[in-house]
Amino acid sequence: xxxKKPFSDAKHWRGRAEATRVKAESLExxxxxxxxxxxxxEYDKLARLAEERQRNxxxxxx
Length: 62
Known about the structure:
Elements: H1 10-25, H2 30-61
Helix pairs in contact: 1-2
């Protein structure tokens, strides 16, 4: 059985995005909050890429 790596795990990246958003909402500084929200968006992009990679792996098995 293949071991999942975080880079290929959409759930991992979605968790990071959510944790980053929670942290961002606790900040009073608008600049810092905005930057953390942008980081969260990047984590969401990584999650979408991981999902796409998983779909391609499944499609390639048939």
